Amino acid sequence: MTHSIRTAAAAATLACALAIPTFAQDGDMAMDMAEPIVAGDLVITQPWTRATPPAAVTGAGYLTITNNGDTDDWLLGFESDVAAVTEVHEMIMADDRMMMRPLEDGLVIPAGETVVLRPGGFHIMFIDLAAGIEEGASVHVTLVFAVAGEVTIDLEVYPIGSDGPAMDGGAMDGMDMDGMNMDGMGEEGGA
Amino acid sequence: MNSLRLVRYGLWGAVAIAAVLAILVAAGVFEGSDADPEAGDAPVNANVEFGTPFTLVTHTGEPITEAAFQETPTLVFFGFTYCPDVCPTALAEVSGWLAELGADAEDLEVYFVSVDPERDVPERLAEYLTAFDERIVGVTGNVEDVHAMLDGYHVYYERYEAENVGYLMDHASSFYLLDRSGDFAGTIAYNDSRDLALERIRSLIEG
Which residue in the set B27, B31, B131 is minimally distant from A53, CB to CB? Predict the structure, then answer.
């Protein structure tokens, strides 16, 4: 009983946390963002990552992907020269338990919807970093989509633990929350 | 007639209130109501023994025991250096809190206990922690000892076999707050605001 209540409370907390950015849309957006990257029906905005602590062998990258087409697409994987191994992951928070899981079938970008990769949710994960990721640098990444094919982007490197560019509300500009794919962000899953 | 009906309504009303109260009690809404209402969700049942004797090692190679969690207010986070998101975020956040609290946090101790002692040897922890506030003490040790400690403090951790990384660790994502007796005094959850975190730490210190 307590367990289910705690889970419900965690889900409610998460729902609130997720809802907050929608209210941050007013006012001026930071316009220093790079131009959106367009690849077929996909539009990619706000690609970023965080600097890594010394000795860290993993890192995570984030971006926002909008699918303006009529067919679903999938982020199948990516390549980068900063890491030997790369995977598309989801982070699941359930009942105070943090779990990371590779998305074996890729991350679906449903037709007409926007998927946000961000801390606490989906991310692209760098494994076996060749060297640390340094603040202020940019990380070259080639994303591989099932439909749109390969797309090369540069992730801007923010400080360790940074909330990244989304906190200015810019990422949420004009976004329809109903259309967002939040799968895996709040559900109970895994062990 | 009318007065009888009133009485009947009144009684049914009382039954309804009693039923609601019974449900709330059963649901644990009033559980731990004597605890600090400011404190976070308790992963620890008040009836279960909290803590255990342990002998582990810090990131500088010094032995550390459960005595370290006593005498001073303490924050403990459980994570691992292969963790790309929650752990560096938590350590960056606690570094920010320490800076903000300044002298108020003079006797606050902060520990980062590895849930992955196999890979997080003291040298790795030491290098990793250079990116954060220097007051954060890394804790690791041999695998069995660390697991026994985590179990004794009711900390969730689970190994997940992952093809390309070897394995990942699922783990609790909250800071544990321990009072001057080393007793559980609440949590700061991953999604808690900076203000709430600071408020809880201040009340822990004032404790």
Answer: B131
- Judging contacts by C-beta atoms under 8 Å, the chain B residues touching residue A161 are 88-93, 95-96
Cβ distance of B84 and A97 shorter than 8 Å: no
CA atoms within 13 A on the CB side of A49: 28
Amino acid B177: pLDDT: 97
Residue A113 has pLDDT above 80, yes or no: yes
Please tell me the predicted confidence (pLDDT) of residue B4: 57
More confident residue, A174 or B125: B125
Domains annotated for chain A, with CATH where assigned, are 2-179 (2.60.40.1890)
Q: ipTM of the predicted structure?
A: 0.74
pLDDT of amino acid B11: 58
Minimum distance, in Å, between the CA of residue B35 and any CA atom of chain A: 16
Q: Name every chain A residue with its beta carbon within 8 A of the beta carbon of B191.
A: 13-14, 17, 93, 120
B85 closest CB neighbour out of A14, A55, A60: A60
For residues A149 and A6, the model is more confident at A149
Yes or no, beta carbons of B170 and A100 under 8 Å apart: yes
Average pLDDT of each block of 10 consecutive residues along chain B (207 residues)?
Answer: 60 60 49 40 64 97 97 97 94 97 95 98 98 98 98 96 86 96 94 95 94
Give the gap in angstroms from C-alpha B189 to the nearest C-alpha of chain A: 7
Enter the tokens of residue A153.
């982007």
B55-206 classified as CATH 3.40.630.30: no
Token code pair at residue B182: 């080393």
Of B26, B83, B189, the CB nearest to A96: B189
CB B159, CB B9: distance < 8 Å: no
Which residues, 6 or more positions from B205, have their beta carbon under 8 angstroms from its beta carbon? B73, B101, B104, B105, B107, B108
A vs B, Cβ pairs < 8 A, gives 120
Task: Report CA torsion sign: A120, A124, A129, A130.
Answer: negative
pTM, two decimals, is 0.75
Instruction: Single out the residue of B175, B94, B195 nearest to residue B136, CA to CA.
Output: B94
Q: Where are the domains of chain B?
A: 1-30, 55-206
